[in-house]
Amino acid sequence: MEQHFDQFHEEQYEIMEEQNQTGINNEIAYEELSGDEAMEQSFSVNSQYMGHNRKAKTNLFMTSMIVTKSILGVGILGLPYVTYNFGLLFTIILIIAFYWQTQYCTNMFLQCKNLSKRSNISTIGFSAFKSKSIIVFINLIIIINNFGLCFAEMIIQGTAIQNVVKSLFDANDGEWYTQRQFLSSISGLIMIPMMVIKKIEKLKFAGVTAICAMSLFCISLITSFISTMKNDGLAVGFTILPYDFTFIKAFGAFPTLLLAYNWEFNLFPVAKGMDKPNDKKVMKACSFGMIIATCFYLMVGIMGCAIYGKESQTNFLASVTKEKMGDVQFYLLNGSFYVSTVLTTPLVFFGARNNFLQLIKGEKKNKVKGVNIDSLDEKEVALLKKQKKKRQQSTKYMYYIWSIGLFVIITIGSIYIHSLEIAFNFVGSVSSNSIGCVLPSLFLFMLMKEGYKNKQMTKMESLQESLAKIFFVYSIIMSFVCLTSEILTTIYE
């Protein structure tokens, strides 16, 4: 690893020199990007979630679908609660605003790519700060983000399976087989074989099946919405303007939107997977994918709140009742989201675990220092082979111990801290906001500062630098306000 950093550091002077002749708005072709493949692969978790073969190039439409798949996730369940807190009008405005914010952040990452000639968040960060610690910091954020998402998905699984079991057996909360401890443990046992898989290719089926389950969830919600409107009309609390607006509660729900649009750590793997990629094609695919995801978000947020109104909760499944939804829709809604989270949790866990293991391993190298095999006798060669085999077995055992241990911790946490508000708020306001907003604006400012030392900026370039600074300050304030609001909401309640 050390040699990759040293080589990278030497290349940076040449890259910055070239920037003086190019600039922020001059695109660097993807095939001309500097390699650092070993370093990128060591730290990268991005492609893990995608579940597609990187050798198979995708067209514009398929890339858009991959973007949509990356964006859609557990955050969708919090949108009816967001709609209740902000009202229909402001929810639509906010979701559209977050769409444009995500577009801008994606564009900033592409500008960072052109300035640094790198196509990985970690290596772009190293270009901006010339420090190895920034790579550790970035991957720590990604680890927190992915483990936080796993935690949220396990909470949702517990709620979904509880709803189904209670309804099927007409049982109350006191029965042992309806307890979250029992049901989440069963779910955990089902997922353990997927959690210890080493190659993401073996989980390809999970991504496709999860998308089908998510689509089934939306279809169930639409049919339930239609039947509810015919029989009961709009729920109390579903209004154009906020029904019962409280600043603290509303901004406590705000991180759900930050979480819902968090996808930027998948940007470069998606771009590299395109057929003949360039920034214009990448932005087109991203825009189309984000539009589809935004339509899903608006649909779920509006319809969910229209059905349940002031009864809407951050975990929408906790609001769902068979009496309101109807038997078929109730089971489909809970069952489809349960299947979706069971299949997507291993994909998210895969990247978080690999990054975690990379961080704790550091720069240790699992190899024997230079030994001339020809100079050894048969006994010494046999001993070396035996030692190598022993190290490989030890590494294998540690891999399984860490994988199962980390997953058990997440499962236990989801059983006893089953508040989705805490998971959404922490992940949304800290890690999702950092990945999507803080890092691209900070990187862009630092790279422009370095790249334009000996070159005068144009008015447009000066404006872009100023916007990056403003956006950085905005994103820091947003994190603080969201976290504070959640803490105050918890104390208030």
Automatic annotation (TrEMBL):
Q: What does the entry list under GO cellular component?
A: membrane
GO MF terms here are:
L-amino acid transmembrane transporter activity
Tell me which residues make up the Amino acid transporter transmembrane domain. 57-481
Keywords from the UniProt entry: Amino-acid transport, Membrane, Transmembrane, Transmembrane helix, Transport
- Cellular location of this protein? Membrane
The membrane-topology field of this record reads: Multi-pass membrane protein
Where are the membrane-spanning stretches?
Answer: 60-82, 88-110, 134-156, 176-196, 203-226, 246-264, 285-309, 329-352, 397-417, 423-447, 467-492
Which InterPro entries would you find in this protein's record? Answer: AA_transpt_TM
Keyword Cytoplasm in the entry? The reply is no
Name where it mostly resides.
Answer: membrane
The similarity annotation says: Belongs to the amino acid/polyamine transporter 2 family.
Q: Return the protein name.
A: Amino acid transporter transmembrane domain-containing protein
Give the organism, scientific name: Paramecium octaurelia
